[in-house]
Amino acid sequence: MNTVLAANPLIQVTPGLMIWTVLCFGATFFVLKRLAFARIQQMIDERRQRIREALDEADKARAEARQMLEEHRAMMVEARSKAEEILTHARQVAEAQKKRMRDELEADRKRRIEETTRQIEAETQRALELIRAEVAELTVVATQKVTGKVLDQADHKRLIEEAVRELDFSVLEGSAGRS
After folding, report:
1. In the 8-state DSSP scheme, what is residue 34?
2. What is the pTM of this model?
3. Angle, helices 170-178/38-147, rounded to nearest 10 degrees
4. Confidence of residue 50 (pLDDT cuts 50, 70, 90)
């Protein structure tokens, strides 16, 4: 087995080669430490710092997003509340307008009824006056024809008053007042 190991030159222990290998490794390590390791470490530190800043910014962005989400939710709640207030106010205004229109219509209806009643009463009075005048004239004409004489002014007046007193106009006046 020893012979197999000795046959491979890479596995053979050669003291001079070992020393040179250790010296070259040490020199290379020293040069790398002086020139490259500091720069590599600096790049690693810078990258670590950028990553830390990026994580901090991400945390800030996440916090801002949460805050904006909460603000948005609060605004939505407020908007719904205001919408409800507006709807309630609109309903109240509509009810008030409806009531005002009903009141105006009722007042207009009453005013028209009163006006119509006054017109009916005035027409009734005019009709009664016309009827009285006609009755008086018919009485005078009938009296003249029955008696065959022309009546003077005093007789004329007396006959009209008697005829009008005999007629009962209260029935006509009462029915006009009721309608």
Report:
1. I
2. 0.40
3. 170
4. very high
